[in-house]
C-alpha cells in the first residue's frame, strides 16, 4: 500500500457507512478513491458497488453471526465485516485467507483494535461455513422488504425477474451520433478496434458492447462519435416526433444525455432549451454538448416555476424526464436499495404531477409532450398520467406503434432486462389544436 493511503477495506467500510447515512455513491465514492493507491481504485469501486448490491443478503447473514449489534460508534466495523463478507461470498479475485487477515488489519487502521478478535472470529466462521440459505425474500433477493412487497403487488407475474435483474451487472450501451456515423459504420470501427458489439433491438442508433470498455478506447469518442447511454433512455427521441423548425424543451435535463440525443436526431431544430435545478449538474450538460459539438440554451431553474425562467414562447415538443425513485436503474445504482424509502413515493408523485401540469401550460396547441421516468412503480408512471388526464380532459393520449414494453393503458412500461435495457416508463401526450 502506498504511503499515506488507507487500507482499501477500511475505505470501503467508510463509503458503505456514508451510504447508510444518506449519501449516494456518486457523492461519497469519488473522494474515497483519492484515499487509496491508483492501482486499487477499480477494486475499491467494485467493493463498494458489490457490497451495496448484496447489502441486504450480507446484512442478514452478519446479523445471524453477531450475538448482539455493535454500538453506534463502532458501526463502521459492522460495514467492514459486510465488505469482507461480500468478498468471501461473491468475489473470485481474492484468496479468502487474505480477506480475513486484511479485514483485521483494517479494523486496527480504523482505530478499533479492541474489535479485531470479533472481526477475526466472525469472518473465520463465515470462511469455514457455506453461505447460508436466505431466510426470507428480502435476504434472498437482497432488496429492502418494502420494495419486495411493492414489486410483488405491482408486478405479480414479473416481480422476481425484476429483483433478479436488479442484481446483475448492467451492460454498456452506446448511442451513435447520427450526425457523424451510421450505426453500421460505427459497428465496423468497433470491429476494427477489436471491440465486440451488437445493435440494440429497439433504439435505432444503439450498440451494446459485449464487455464494458473504457471510453478512451472507443473510436472517435473524444470527437463526439458516440455517447454512453442505456437503450431505454435512447427511446425518447423516437417518441418526440422531431421535425425541423421546432422549439424543444428538455426539462430536468442533467446530465444531458437526452438533450444531446434530441440535437443529434434532428439537426434543423429552431432551439433546444435544457433546464435543470442543480447548479452542480449543469456543467455535465455543457461538457457533453461541447464534446459532441452541439448547441443548446441552458438554464438553471426549477422547471415547475415557469415564471422564473420561461420567456413566453411556447414549445412544440417537451421531454419531461421527472425526478423519480430510480427503481428501474438499481443495477447501475445499487445504493438506491439503501437510500430510497417507501415514504418517498407519495411526495415524488406530487412533484411529478406538478411538473406535468406546469409543462402543459407552456406546450403549444398541436404540440407533443413525452413524460418519462426510470421507475418501475405505477404510482409514478401510468397512474400519474391517469390523474393528469382527469384534470385535463382535452389532453390526447398517443399510443405509439412500438413493440417494446408493457402497455399499461396510459403509457409503456419497460422492465429491467438483464441482457439489455433498464427499467423505464414513457407516455406521449398531445395538446389539441384550438
Description of the structure:
With 434 residues, the protein is of the alpha/beta class. It folds into three domains: 131 residues, N-utilizing Substance Protein B Homolog, Chain A (Orthogonal Bundle), CATH 1.10.940.10; 57 residues, Alpha-Beta Plaits, CATH 3.30.70.1170; 201 residues, 3-Layer(aba) Sandwich (Rossmann fold), CATH 3.40.50. The protein has 18 helices and 13 strands. The strands form two sheets. Strands 5, 6, 7, 8, 9, 10, 11, 12 and 13 form a nine-stranded mixed beta sheet that branches. The protein has a four-stranded antiparallel beta sheet with strand order 2-3-1-4, with helices on one face. α1 crosses α3, α5 packs parallel to α7 and α9 crosses α10. The model has no long low-confidence stretch (mean pLDDT 95).
List its traits:
N-utilizing Substance Protein B Homolog, Chain A; Rossmann fold; Alpha-Beta Plaits; globular; 18 helices; nine-stranded mixed sheet; alpha/beta
What CATH architecture label of the largest domain applies? 3-Layer(aba) Sandwich
Beta strand %: 5-15%
CATH fold type of the largest domain: Rossmann fold
Structural class: alpha/beta
User: Helical content, roughly?
Assistant: 40-55%
Using the CA coordinates, give the radius of gyration: 23 Å
Distance, first to last CA: 70 Å
Structurally, the number of domains stands at 3
Can you tell me the CATH superfamily of the largest domain? Vaccinia Virus protein VP39
User: Any idea of the CATH class of the largest domain?
Assistant: Alpha Beta
Major sheet characteristics = 9 strands, mixed
User: How many strand units?
Assistant: 13
What is the mean pLDDT? 95
Number of helical runs?
18
Basic shape: globular
- Spans with pLDDT under 50 lasting ≥5 residues? none
Amino acid at each position: 500500500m502506498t504511503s499515506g493511503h488507507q487500507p482499501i477495506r477500511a475505505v470501503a467500510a467508510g463509503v458503505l457507512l456514508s451510504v447508510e447515512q444518506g449519501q449516494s455513491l456518486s457523492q461519497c465514492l469519488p473522494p474515497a478513491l483519492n484515499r487509496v493507491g491508483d492501482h486499487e481504485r477499480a477494486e475499491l469501486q467494485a467493493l463498494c458497488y458489490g457490497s451495496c448490491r448484496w447489502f441486504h443478503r450480507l446484512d442478514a447473514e452478519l446479523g445471524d453471526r453477531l450475538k448482539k449489534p455493535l454500538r453506534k460508534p463502532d458501526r463502521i466495523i459492522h460495514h467492514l465485516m459486510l465488505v469482507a463478507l461480500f468478498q468471501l461470498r461473491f468475489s473470485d479475485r481474492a484468496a479468502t485467507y487474505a480477506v480475513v487477515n486484511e479485514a483485521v488489519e483494517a479494523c486496527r487502521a480504523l482505530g478499533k483494535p479492541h474489535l479485531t478478535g470479533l472481526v477475526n472470529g466472525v469472518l473465520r466462521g463465515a470462511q469455514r461455513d457455506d453461505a447460508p440459505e436466505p431466510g426470507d425474500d428480502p435476504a434472498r433477493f437482497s432488496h429492502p422488504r418494502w420494495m419486495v412487497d411493492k414489486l410483488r403487488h405491482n408486478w405479480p407475474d414479473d416481480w422476481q425477474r425484476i429483483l433478479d435483474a436488479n442484481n446483475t451487472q448492467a451492460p454498456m450501451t452506446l448511442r451513435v451520433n447520427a450526425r457523424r456515423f451510421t450505426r453500421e459504420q460505427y459497428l465496423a470501427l468497433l470491429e476494427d478496434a477489436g471491440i465486440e458489439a451488437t445493435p440494440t433491438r429497439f433504439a435505432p442508433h444503439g450498440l451494446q458492447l459485449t464487455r464494458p470498455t473504457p471510453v478512451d478506447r472507443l473510436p472517435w469518442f473524444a470527437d463526439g462519435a458516440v455517447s454512453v447511454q442505456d437503450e431505454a433512455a435512447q427511446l425518447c427521441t423516437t417518441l418526440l416526433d422531431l421535425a425541423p423548425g421546432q422549439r424543444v424543451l428538455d426539462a430536468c435535463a442533467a446530465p444531458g444525455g437526452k438533450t444531446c440525443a434530441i440535437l443529434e436526431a434532428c439537426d434543423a431544430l429552431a432551439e433546444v432549451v435544457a433546464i435543470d435545478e442543480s447548479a452542480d449538474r449543469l456543467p455535465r450538460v455543457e461538457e457533453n454538448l461541447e464534446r459532441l459539438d452541439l448547441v443548446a440554451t441552458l438554464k438553471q431553474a426549477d422547471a415547475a416555476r415557469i415564471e422564473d425562467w420561461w420567456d413566453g414562447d411556447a414549445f412544440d415538443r417537451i421531454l419531461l424526464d421527472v425526478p423519480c425513485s430510480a427503481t428501474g436503474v438499481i443495477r447501475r445504482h445499487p445504493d438506491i436499495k439503501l437510500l430510497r424509502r417507501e415514504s418517498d413515493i407519495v411526495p415524488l408523485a406530487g412533484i411529478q404531477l406538478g411538473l406535468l401540469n406546469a409543462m402543459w401550460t407552456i406546450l403549444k396547441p398541436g404540440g407533443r409532450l413525452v413524460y418519462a421516468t426510470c421507475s418501475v412503480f405505477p404510482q409514478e408512471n401510468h397512474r400519474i398520467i391517469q390523474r393528469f388526464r382527469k384534470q385535463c380532459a382535452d389532453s390526447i393520449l398517443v399510443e405509439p406503434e412500438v413493440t417494446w414494453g408493457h402497455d399499461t393503458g396510459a403509457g409503456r412500461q419497460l422492465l429491467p432486462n438483464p441482457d439489455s435495457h433498464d427499467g423505464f416508463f414513457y407516455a406521449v401526450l398531445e395538446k389539441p389544436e384550438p
